[in-house]
Amino acid sequence: MNLKGVRQTKVYIDILFLCNFIMDLCLIVIFCRLVNVKSSLKRMIFSALSGAVSDCILICFDRGMALKIIFGNIIIPGIIIGIVLYGNTVLNVKLILKYIIIWYFNAFAFGGFISCIFGNTVSIYELFSCAAFIALFGCMILRRGNIAHIGEVNENIYEITIYKDERSLKGFAKYDSANTLCEPVSGKDVIVCQADAVKDFLTEGEKIYAGLFPKLPDEWDGKTLLRSIPYSSVGLRRGCLPGIALDRVCISKGRKKMVYKDCYLAISDNGISADKTYGFLLNYKMKL
Description:
By secondary structure, the chain is α+β, with helices and mostly antiparallel strands. It folds into two domains: 13-150; 157-282, no CATH class. It is built from six helices and seven strands. The chain has helices at residues 13-34, 41-58, 66-85, 93-118, 124-144, 204-212; strands spanning 157-164, 167-175, 190-194, 227-233, 237-253, 256-268, 280-282. A hairpin with a 2-residue loop joins strand 1 and strand 2. Helix 1 (13-34) packs across helix 2, helix 1 packs parallel to helix 5 (124-144) and helix 2 runs antiparallel to helix 3 (66-85). It is elongated and about 75 Å long. It starts with 12 loop residues before the first helix and ends in a 6-residue tail after the last strand.
């Protein structure tokens, strides 16, 4: 084959890998904040590594190949998102496609920012500087709340189903932007419920221990576990509520549905709803 007059570009695989890893990690951090999903740093790093390795493999293929276009534009983002979200929520094809669209908007904004600041060519040092800025921006979002939190949704009433072991209970829940409770040991999100609303859901041991709380029973039955959930009401009223760990929580409204895993249920003797239209207060992170 005559390559006379063809301009060739030398690519260093280690630089390509490092640049893609930094870019993917920054995108993952911002993506998690935008869609309000918790993910561990190890999982984020592993996801970014997977994306960087895949990009290095893709460069070996012809640019015009349909397989490369599909793999690079759909499969790789799907893998990155799947690794980040695995174990945090129940994924389906529709939800993954939605997240891929958000990922691309995020990537376009990030790429546009880099091009605007540095132009068409970016050195590795400039990329590190940009990554530091993006990390700082992500921390600011973390402190101020995600973009989805801007909308006012306090009047939303959802159908809710809670699950623990072989037990389940359906009811109605209200989204409460003021409910920022979390279990102090694990940091997991907490839903508040009215005691009457879950009387058919709790075991006899949980009912007895919750009724004694914060006092301890004279003898432990060997299977009932409660956690103390601290709360503060507008800074004036403080205390602790008995809480139990849930396997998952499903909230829905119309055709919309979301599943949250590993939450806690705090049990309150006080009334949640004056007219008893709902028996649960959702955590501020739980929305459709």
